[in-house]
Design goal:
Elements (H helix, E strand, L loop, with lengths): L6 H9 L3 H23 L2 H17 L10 H18 L21 H16 L2 H12 L4 H8 L3 H24 L9
Helix pairs in contact: 1-2, 2-3, 2-4, 2-6, 3-4, 4-7, 5-8, 6-8, 7-8
């Protein structure tokens, strides 16, 4: 028997009842999915819950897996739906927590940390659909064609939406960066 190596082969094995193959897929993709959900929700707890829930959904939906399609596109389609479901239920708040647990590594300069935090807050201020486009394209490294397949739209539509989302992010960022700094260093 040939070793199972590709995600597509692993998912086919899951569909055939091999739960060990799901564990391999989990090992390969859980960190990227956690980052995806974290960048969308801003909540470590919600991100962990959504990541765990996603792999249960993959198992439950394994019979719908089409081996001729790309596994990551199918996985992110389910992740997208999970995020939308959770957002509709108000599963988390995207407000800035009081403590600075999300600031970049302490060795960075304070200025860089503040810019990073401001960008994170600006991302969380975007509508969820625009935030997701930027997360998929910029942080998850998905190509516009893959995003189009995931969302069921043309590639050019994705390009336009990403361009508009970047424009809105820039606008939000500029407004936040122009806001006066309050005592304690927050805006």
């Amino acid at each position: 028997m040939l070793p199972i190596e590709t995600d597509e082969q692993l998912m086919t094995a899951v569909r055939e009842g091999d739960t060990h193959a799901l564990g391999v897929l989990f090992d390969r993709h859980h960190a990227a999915l956690y980052r995806y959900f974290f960048r969308l929700s801003g909540s470590p707890a919600a991100s962990e819950d959504l990541t765990q829930d996603l792999f249960l959904r993959l198992l439950r939906k394994s019979s719908t897996w089409d081996a001729s399609s790309r596994f990551t596109s199918w996985m992110y389609r389910i992740a997208h739906n999970s995020f939308i479901d959770a957002a509709r239920r108000g599963k988390w708040e995207t407000e800035m927590p009081e403590h600075q647990e999300f600031i970049a590594v302490a060795t960075h300069s304070l200025e860089r940390d503040q810019e990073h935090e401001l960008l994170r807050r600006a991302m969380l201020a975007l509508p969820p659909d625009k935030r997701e486009l930027l997360v998929l394209s910029r942080y998850q490294g998905m190509k516009y064609e893959q995003i189009g397949e995931l969302l069921g739209v043309e590639t050019n539509t994705v390009k336009v939406r990403v361009f508009r989302a970047l424009g809105q992010l820039r606008e939000i960022y500029m407004k936040m960066s122009a806001a006066p700094v309050l005592e304690g260093g927050t805006r």
